[in-house]
């Protein structure tokens, strides 16, 4: 932080300011007490509370993550179900091609293509930056649409394959054949009976994708110059603002834990038979 040629007395003063002259357990317990009280310390570079920095960046990252997840579900569920409805058909082949391309292509490269083709080429959406929520709802959402698409494509590609496999497996169950024998059309039997019973693997995969969404946001936010948590983590790492990096990683871990807890709770909602087992 002080450079390679810092004087010993300057180094000692900085170590005392950062608390590095104290024993390890004293520093750790002090940090843990601060976290439990909501005090995450002050940024070395910005000289502001880390909690304020993170809170400001969450206003960008949370809407971006929610929008990307919603887009991935809107793409993956219909495409996966339609592919399962006619295995080997045109929609199934299209879904398979989409899944392979979506999994193979990095999200930051998708973001660059969207900037060149959609934002700069067609002028439909913002190519980067974030005007803030004070500028209005649509200008803010307009700045998040292309980054959300870049994050959603790899997620929806995986989710499409899982949806297809899960629905095909359920379609062959006896209760679906019974519904068809009672006179239900293929489409109604599929959406009314097969899809609800195929949701468990889909929800599981959605929960597992949360860490990949977070890691992808680090790159995508930098491509679109969004002032979110990913950009904060990258800038803090490059500037060696380790207290910010430490707390951002702690928050990322907490988000993953909460997401997986919510997924476990959804199991009992989707399948009441699991209530006694959770």
Any overview of this molecule?
The structure is a single chain. With about 280 residues, the chain is mainly alpha-helical. It has one domain: MetI-like (MetI-like fold). The chain is built from 11 helices and no strands. The chain has helices spanning about 10-20, 25-35, 50-85, 90-105, 105-120, 135-170, 175-180, 185-195, 200-225, 230-240, 240-270. α5 (about 105-120) packs across α9 and α10 packs antiparallel against α11. The longest helix has about 35 residues, at about 50-85. About 30% of the residues are buried.
In terms of topology, how is this protein built?
Layout: H1 8-18, H2 24-36, H3 50-85, H4 90-104, H5 107-122, H6 137-171, H7 174-181, H8 186-197, H9 199-223, H10 229-238, H11 242-270
